[in-house]
Amino acid sequence: MNRVLKFNKLTAVYLLTMVVLLAVAIFNLFYHLGNFPLISYDESRHGVSAYEMLQSGNYLVNTYMYNPDYWNLKPPLSFWSIVLGYKIAGYNALGLRLASAVCGLLTIIMVAVFMLKRHGKLASVISALVLTTCVQFLTNHSARNGDPDSLYVFLFTAAILALLLSGKNNKWIYVSGLGFSLAFLTKSWHSFNIVVIIGLYLIFSGKYKSFSFKNWLLLGLSMITPIMVWAAFRYQYDGLTFFKEMITYDLLTRSTTTIEGHVGGRLYYARIISQFFIYWLAILYGLMLVFLNRKFSFKSIKMLKPEERAYWIGIISWVIVPLIFFSFAKTKIRWYILPVYPALSIIIGILASRLVRNGKLMLKIVLLASVLLVSASYELKIHRDLSHITPNVQLELIQKLRGVNGIKGDSLFYYNRKKIWPQNAVLAAELTSDLHVSNGNFKEFLRKDKALLLVQKKYYTQKFMKANRLKILVSNPWGFIVYKRL
């Protein structure tokens, strides 16, 4: 009876703690999610492609300004997730980012459940806490942005956790293969990190020796079937053009040369993780020192069962493989290593929970105090970042057109000598009133029926307006949107 009561109390404490943690995670992921201005990089590019898929009805070819996009060379799964967000939350920033935030939350829950089943309640809580307060995982091109990375990290995490579960049940290996395939349909070549990790796990676990032809066939089919189905349908539209660009630009050029100014040395990603994760790294370093003393020596690692060694090799490879691959690639972009954070949270959770169970009292106190202090510190930083919104006055001007009658589907020109549309302005125009932005010049605007013109204040004069028979439709401190009077 006492054991049942103790179990129930521990379970109740665990459930209450997880409810609080999930509430914090939901706050970190969804607070002001739709209020931050659109980012004029990948987020807006993906948002435009998803919107244009909805308008054209073609869900296989991603376009930008209604032309096939051979710069953003990603398969369509991330665009479909944004489409779903638009359907649920509307054509706005919340709809753009909704799927990413949900995937971030699901990743935290998935890690917590895995750790609960494999390592216990305390490990589950600590891993979830680490991931919930991981700044880069939340805010840097990830769970709070309309980029493909949050969905990719979710699928990457699902693939590796399934791989780790396959040590006890071979069927999970096929889930891992499917996770790779869906990750490829989200982020393209990045997903081959999963293939390498699967290979290392199968080799060091010795499972490859026991695989029958049927096992290999099912694993291969789970990994390639969704990709081949997509490739067959995509081929119908532009033949090999998209696939050639995927290989030559998105794989070979990014790997062998520095593009778009994304430079960095071999230690670039180590510095990035230190920048966003330094306090958790300090705790991890302390835990490793404890577990590499005389009591926990390398000799004890050799005494592990093959399945347990393979398990640890799988987790460590989850961190090391992406770091190595992207460190040797010439193009360095900080969010490429986002998938390592769930793995780091798992390692910290495992080691911390073991120390609490087996360590000395003083070490336990220091560890738990450090975990609480670090998580509180990162949570305060996240809260400050989420509370500070810098408005984009140009986007606000475009968004003032929402609800204006008679302009849906009009062309929008940009009165700017450079004639360059920021990507977030293109997205804002499409989401606001289905406006079709044009790269044409001012003379083309004057010749075009049903056309609007975005004019910054420094280009505006009363003489200019009168000479061209223009009238202001909306305005703000940045400038005006005008139309031609009849």
Quick description:
The chain has helices at residues 2-30, 42-56, 77-89, 93-119, 121-132, 135-139, 149-165, 171-187, 192-205, 207-210, 213-238, 241-256, 268-291, 298-302, 306-328, 340-358, 361-387, 393-399, 423-433, 442-447, 462-467; strands at residues 63-64, 67-68, 411-415, 436-438, 451-456, 470-475, 479-484. It has 2 domains: 2-387, no CATH class; 393-484.
Q: Give the proportion of residues in helices.
A: 55-70%
- Please report the distance between the alpha carbons of the first and last residues: 87 Å
Kindly provide the radius of gyration, computed on alpha-carbon positions and rounded to a whole number of angstroms.
26 Å
Largest sheet: 5 strands, mixed
What are the segments in which pLDDT stays under 50 over at least 5 consecutive residues? none
Q: Overall mean pLDDT score?
A: 92
In what order do the strands lie side by side in the largest sheet?
Answer: 4-3-5-7-6
Q: What is the element string, with H for helices and E for strands?
A: HHEEHHHHHHHHHHHHHHHHEHEHEHEE
- Total beta-strand segments: 7
Q: Structurally, how many domains make up the residues?
A: 2
Q: Tell me the number of helical segments per DSSP (H or I, 4 or more residues long).
A: 21
| SSE-based structural type | alpha/beta
Report the β-strand fraction as a percent range. 5-15%
Shape: globular
